[in-house]
Amino acid sequence: MQVKGTLYLPGDKSISHRAIMLSSIANGKSTIRNLNDGADLQSTINVLKACGAKIDSKNETIIIEGVDLISPNKKLDCGNSGTTTRLISGLLSSQKLDFTLVGDSSLSSRPMKRIIIPLQEMGCDISSNDNLLPLTIDAKEGTQSIDYKIPVASAQVKSCILLAALGADNPSIIHENILTRDHTEIMLNNMGATISILDKSINVRPLENKLNPINITIPSDPSSAAFFAAMAVINDNSELTLNNVLLNKTRIGFIDVLEKMNCNLSINNKQLNNGEKTGDITFSTSALTSIEIESKIIPSIIDEIPILAVVAAYSNGITIFRNVEELKYKECDRLHAIIHNLNAFGINAYEKEDCLFVEGGKPKKLAKITTFHDHRIAMAFTIMSLASFGKYHLDNKDCIDISLPNFFNLIDKVAE
Ligand code: S3P
Predict the structure, then answer these.
(1) How far is 276 from 209, CA to CA, in rounded Å?
(2) Who has the most CB within 10 Å: 63, 91, 202, 288?
């Protein structure tokens, strides 16, 4: 297969969630273009509408009229979305609401203690199913400020606390061990909140006035771009340009990793859009070398590890991903899912002491892809199967709708 052409991908999923949430409580009308069109975003929109948010769309532009959100009269269904669950918990707490969050079976097995502990410390009354969903949060009495060191590298946990802190009685401080994606901080700053960052500590003041509305075109999602980048890199005679991709440094670890693996790529047309960097990236066929990826890089590639593990299978040695325990708590146990599928395609891959080892050598046999109902596992191994065998068999195609419903049409546009 050859890959040629240019793609403009849908908006970044993380920024899309934040734009919808913060616009819903802003003072006036926000407009959002190139919103991520996946099912996770629909979960966030439905949850907010159930709390009184005014969200409409006109000619592919989302228009949100900020309101005072109200406690919902039904359970809030977060579907498959961890970002919806954890960020909404903080946002609705800041608005002094009382609500219950539920989700699908994957989401119902993901850890919520990481947000329960800080939200309880801030004064929320919380009950859960042994630290899993359903989660009932009563923040009617308001929230107190917090000085909190986050024990896991998680932007969802950080954002949950940041959002809750907007409604607290005093300024809060949040400390991270390793920097994670900072879209909440950037957007809050752009919308007029008082937030300052010093090294890995964030100070945020409660809102004295409502946030200003935003007018934003969401940059293309680098996590989606990574699948197409890999396609160009592992197929022969290929060159692909991805336009207007988000280049926030906390998200483009996969570009650094690919560069270290000797990948041919160039970045042009760099711009700044609502505080976020963007650019056009061209990837082409590359002779890849294996590398060792240190633990401090992991948060900046956390969602790209499935496709980077696929790329590593086309390199010339053993690639090591250090300290990838967090992979176990994603939409499925991704560490297990990656190893299972690589092995099924005849690639030697294994886990040792929370590290993932992938031995290069290209797939040796066509296998049915076991998705574990996880969109990123499905897309990563579809790219591998197509590159090596020109076809694929997936046990669940629909899960791809979570972040990139157009995945197969986009492939058709550039695959020859
Ligand atoms: C996200 C943060 C990450 C990432 C997820 C989106 C976000 O999760 O895996 O897809 O938008 O904040 P964690 O914060 O749990 O690592």
Answers:
(1) 24
(2) 91
CB distance 349 to 341 below 8 Å: no
Instruction: Work out whether the CA dihedral 364, 369, 370, 374 comes out positive or negative.
Output: positive
Report residue 51 as tokens: 């709390």
148-181 burial string, b = 16+ CB within 10 Å, else e? bebebbbbbbbbbbbbbbbbbeebbbbebebbbb
Q: Cβ contacts of residue 147 below 8 Å, gap of 6+?
A: 172, 173
Distance of CA 32 to the CA centre of its chain: 18
The answer to whether the CB of 397 falls within 8 A of the CB of 406 is no
182 lines ligand 1 (CB under 6 A): no
Q: Which residue has the least CA distance to atom 15 on ligand 1?
A: 154
Cis bond before residue 219 (omega within 30° of 0): no
Amino acid letter at 8? Y
Query: CA 203 from chain center: how many Å?
Result: 23
pTM for the complete prediction?
A: 0.98
Q: Residue 109's pLDDT band (boundaries 50, 70, 90)? A: very high
Which letter, b or e, does each residue of 61-99 get, where b requires 16 or more Cβ atoms within 10 Å of its Cβ?
A: ebebebeebebbeebbbbbbbbbbbbbbbbbbbbbebbb
Per the annotation, the verdict on 98 as an active-site residue is no
Distance CA 20, CA 340 (A): 36
Which of 138, 303, 374, 412 is an active site residue? 303
- Calculate the alpha carbon distances from 184 to 166, 189, 356 in Å: 12, 8, 30
In 3D space, the residue among 97, 3, 84 whose CA is nearest the CA of residue 51 turns out to be 97
Q: Which of 36, 44, 78, 83 to mutate to test the pocket of ligand 1 (most atoms within 8 A of CB)?
A: 83
Q: d(Cα 156, Cα 217) in Å, to the nearest integer?
A: 22
pLDDT digits (tens, 9 = 90+) for 201-243: 999 999 999 999 999 999 999 999 999 999 999 999 999 999 9
Tokens of 93: 């707490």
- Distance separating alpha carbons of residues 47 and 133, to the nearest angstrom: 15
Asked if 278 and 247 count as a contact pair (C-beta separation under 8 A), the reply is yes
